[in-house]
Design goal:
The structure is a single chain. This protein is α/β, with parallel strands linked by helices. It has a domain at about 1-185 and about 305-315: 3-Layer(aba) Sandwich (Rossmann fold). About 25% of the residues lie in helices and about 20% in strands. The chain is built from 8 helices and 11 strands. The chain has helices at about 10-20, 30-40, 95-100, 130-140, 270-280, 285-290, 295-305, 310-315, and strands spanning about 1-5, 25-30, 50, 65-70, 110-120, 140-150, 160-170, 220-225, 240, 260-265, 265-270. The longest helix is centred in the middle third of the chain and has 12 residues, at about 130-140. It comes from Levilactobacillus brevis (Lactobacillus brevis).
């Protein structure tokens, strides 16, 4: 299938979709640092792109079978101001996307929509916002299914996200969910481990990590500092067992917020490369971004903002037109 990568970031959607055999025909991303990484990682020559979704016209967008997007979550996330995606400026960009679809003739609309966001989308504003999302998709012709997937099914990171698939009515599309329940793709790996420090060959690209089908809980084993400095948020000072599961990666914009691990009686923070690995990115992708001149702070932020590549791949492998 041909797909469009919206709010593309560093291209986690794109990598997962391409690993499942689909073709990217366009991408949109406004952040200049994310664009720099995206262009370093992916083959972008001759592929349509734009920087601001708000200035795009529907007639510019190449025809595609699927539009992928994780619209900004700052107004929805528990860590954000929780204005909701109807009142918040960033998260309301969802309606910019549906507006573009409204402007397309039905024959030109994508058969699938693949949408990702934080789990809090289901409950913010008493669930009204999620109901509004479903109504909006229904009005532009899409039946929806959704599921909450934890990245710990395929990488050693506890990261719950809601994934929504829209099926354009009248097209023959395949039901997607459930993905992992009773059918985990790593179950058959005899030497799969549940640690941060053990690799499984080339499973998801060199240096990537996998996790047991029933991962152990996130294990905090201490604190590194007086966390009062962080305004009552103890997260930055927590130390985690490297034989366990990483907590959810955030944008980690400074302040020592990177996850810490205790290795050989020494506390250290996860490196940017390790954070990219926790999102399922192969080492070659990280190296290309690093060589493009991205700072550690940007590399941490980009990992925290990304989707988990193997989760996207698992979904994309089930997407087909019948």
């Amino acid at each position: 299938m041909r797909f469009i990568d919206l709010f593309a970031g560093i291209g986690g959607f794109r990598l997962g979709m391409e690993q499942a055999g689909h073709e990217c025909v366009g991408w949109v991303e406004w952040d200049k640092f994310a664009r720099k990484s995206y262009q370093a990682i992916h083959d972008v020559e001759g592929v349509w792109n734009a920087s601001d979704i708000r200035t795009v016209r529907s007639t510019e967008i190449p025809r595609a079978d699927c539009w992928c997007f994780g619209f900004p979550c700052q107004d929805i996330s528990v860590a954000g101001k929780q204005k909701g995606f109807t009142a918040g400026k960033r998260s309301s960009l969802f309606f910019t996307v549906t507006g573009l679809i409204r402007d397309l003739e039905e024959k030109d609309r994508p058969s699938y929509l693949l949408i990702e966001n934080v789990k809090n989308l289901l409950s913010i504003n008493g669930g009204f916002d999620f109901l509004k999302l479903q109504i909006e998709l229904d009005e532009i012709g899409y039946d929806v299914e959704w599921d909450v997937l934890d990245s710990a099914e395929v990488v050693p990171q506890h990261r719950e996200r809601v994934f929504i698939v829209g099926h354009l009515r009248g097209r023959s599309t395949r039901k997607i969910f459930p993905i992992f329940k009773g059918n985990r793709e790593v179950d058959s790996r005899p030497d799969t481990t549940n640690t941060l420090t053990t690799r499984y060959g080339e499973a998801q690209g060199a240096g990537s990590y996998l996790v047991e089908s029933k991962p152990s809980q996130v294990r905090q084993i201490g604190n590194t500092m007086n966390t009062d400095y962080f305004c009552g948020n103890p997260q930055p000072g927590r130390v985690y067992d490297p034989e366990g599961i990483s907590p959810t990666l955030s944008t980690m914009q400074g302040g020592g917020q990177e996850p810490k691990v205790l290795v050989n009686l020494q506390v250290r923070k996860l490196t940017p490369r390790e954070c990219w690995r926790l999102q399922g990115f192969p080492d070659w992708a990280f190296c290309r971004a690093r060589e493009a001149g991205l700072s550690d702070s940007q590399l941490y932020k980009q990992a925290g903002n990304s989707v988990t590549v193997p989760v996207i791949k698992a979904i994309a492998e089930r997407m087909e037109l019948t």
